[in-house]
Amino acid sequence: MSHVVRNAQKMNWTVAADAKLLHLFSQGLNKIDVAQEMGTSIASIEARYRKLKKEQNSGNQKAYKN
Length: 66
What we know:
Layout: H1 15-26, H2 31-38, H3 42-58
Helix pairs in contact: 2-3
């Protein structure tokens, strides 16, 4: 079954948005619920989560422009 998040917006990933993403997953929400909560697409959530986990595993910290 395919899931679509309605009215998904392009996500501007910030330190706060990354923290929220990781927090929601740590609370046991699935990718569909996280995407709905953050108002973005499931694909965006999946891609960003993979990137954050990869950075955590390699010890790299991304510099953000705010």
